[in-house]
């Protein structure tokens, strides 16, 4: 039985690592063969694996088939759909899900996620007629950061879009509409401005928590406290079980009723009720499934040991939603449960309550570190201390008052408001404590970790957390070394590593020599999006860069200079130079770039020119030529055709093998005469897909192709990296294929 469960789970998890899905005929054959094999004593393991693998791949294929058609990608269409779930309100925009949308332009995915700036009030259960600019699932692709395509597929969202106009058609009563009404009441309360946190704990809606508070929770390793997960649902069901058990022990339970099965069923019903209130999202379903199986195990199969219900729960969760393995929360939740069993099982003697609680915190911090690094998440240094206080604080003070307050808000409003006010007060006190801890011990973001280092690290922590007396336990610290100090790809003298980051409609390029680093532009800044904070700084840290010798901001436009302040605040920067000093924040202490400024780092030559120093905007861009071992890279900012002509007329040597397409491939640049002088072999285009400017222009692409120039586009390849001086081809962040990525 145990072997079959493990094989079935392995088949389901294999989906996560596939570059391509097998054909449907192959998958159906796998399922048919598996049904026959599971009844054979020696081959049932193979049958279980094939059954899990076939089902997972078929389910994934159905989700892929439900994506937006290519013909509608980037088009504005009128559609009608029903709002489901709780709309998210963030920084002047509303984001919500549409279900079963219909349009005369063609079939649409069953679930579409749309964003509406300055929207009217949108409530769950309403039916709207909307003009939406539709897009296929996608997102930025860098060497560090969330994979938007994987996230959307895991949630079975087939398209995203921006609402241009809309009209409310009707309102339909539904469970989500009732939850939305309750949320509105929670958000209107006076609860120490922690209404968003209360809505998160009661309804599973975290959109009311500010980005700063989410960052604080991540820094202190307490994010799990503000999402309805197994911890909160287990707490409620455990409380209900303990209440029935206490009544039975004190003699207040009817003797004719068996208290134990009733306690188990009551605990399960309370978990289901909390899940109903939270909307039964994937993490909530996962927690309820786990509690149901543990309850059944506690009633009938306790003799099988603790690993069996965990394995069955894992199999049930994955069978119900095979795409759950694409989300970090899935791995963290089940790894946490497995670590707790590993920590407390098989030890001689018993720890007292306080010793168990304290040891659990630091052991979990160590045990989850490899998982966090593998998932590219920060490791909280203050997490053990923060959770030691925060977990009981939230579980025994904040959540009970919030849940009771929500119940009484619907029945006895004054009492409900009082309880919610108390819950908000205790939550505010917790955030004050967490803020203090975050200053003392900020989170640590490691470098990009190779798979072999993660495997060694997991083995190391399992040995470290094993009971005393294991002969090979002293080897554990040595196995952790590659995890925390992985090999760093530094260029040799005379060479330079170049990374064109995928920042959307903007630009940011890193050039790294053996001992120096320069950042050319810092990405865009827009409503609710700072590429410097979300993309540039995390990726620099992932590459082991904690210090920039120079940040060169070509000019002051927001798509090039917007992220500069975040980079300056997150990375030590020695010097900031730019073509437009007055348009950059004074806190950066920028200085003007000097025309024909030149320097050499480890045999790599850098030259700065400013073709139009008296101009403003795009024309004021400072350009940068980098030369390593005879190979040249020309970074051109947003110069236009006139600036290109000035460079040509100056008589400077602007020939380069690599050319950053001026102004993202705009038709106002990349002139015929400019390409004839530069004679590039490769062109780099940094832009956002379906941008409003039509970059790159078709005429420019045609011009590059006529000159035999090979084009690399961040919107298609993701971040682009290569070593200047090696004369090799670049690598794109999307080069490592997964089945959910668009071709």
Task: Write a brief structural summary.
It is a multi-pass membrane protein. The protein has 743 residues and is α/β, with parallel strands linked by helices.
CATH class of the domain at 496-732: Alpha Beta
Largest sheet, strands/sense/barrel: 8 strands, mixed
In oligomeric terms, what are we looking at? single chain
Trace the largest sheet across and list its strands: 15-14-12-8-7-6-23-24
How many strands in all? 24
CATH superfamily of the domain at 496-732: Ribonuclease Z/Hydroxyacylglutathione hydrolase-like
Helix content range: 40-55%
Strand content: 15-25%
Counting DSSP H or I runs of 4 or more residues, the number of helices is 24
Q: What would the principal axes of the Cα set say about the shape?
A: globular
**Structural class by helix and strand composition:** alpha/beta
CATH architecture of the domain at 496-732: 4-Layer Sandwich
Transmembrane segments: 26-58, 233-253, 259-280, 301-324, 330-348, 360-381, 393-411, 418-437, 443-465
Keywords: Cell membrane, Membrane, Transmembrane, Transmembrane helix
Main location: membrane
Domain Metallo-beta-lactamase: 505-689
Secondary structure elements and pairings:
Layout: H1 2-13, H2 24-37, H3 44-65, E1 76-90, E2 93-102, E3 111-117, E4 126-135, H4 148-154, E5 159-171, H5 175-187, H6 195-203, H7 211-219, H8 230-250, H9 259-277, H10 282-300, H11 307-320, H12 328-344, H13 353-374, H14 383-411, H15 413-440, H16 451-464, H17 476-484, E6 496-500, E7 509-512, E8 517-520, E9 525-526, E10 529-530, H18 531-542, E11 547-548, E12 550-553, H19 558-561, H20 564-570, E13 572-573, E14 576-578, E15 591-592, E16 597-601, E17 604-609, E18 623-628, E19 631-635, H21 641-649, E20 658-660, H22 672-678, E21 682-685, H23 698-706, E22 710-713, H24 714-717, E23 720-724, E24 731-732
Parallel strand pairs: 3-5, 8-12, 11-13, 12-14, 14-15, 19-20, 20-21, 21-22
Antiparallel strand pairs: 1-2, 1-4, 2-3, 4-5, 6-7, 6-23, 7-8, 9-10, 16-17, 17-18, 18-19, 23-24
Protein name: DNA internalization-related competence protein ComEC/Rec2
Transmembrane segments: 26-58, 233-253, 259-280, 301-324, 330-348, 360-381, 393-411, 418-437, 443-465
Organism: Pseudomonas asuensis
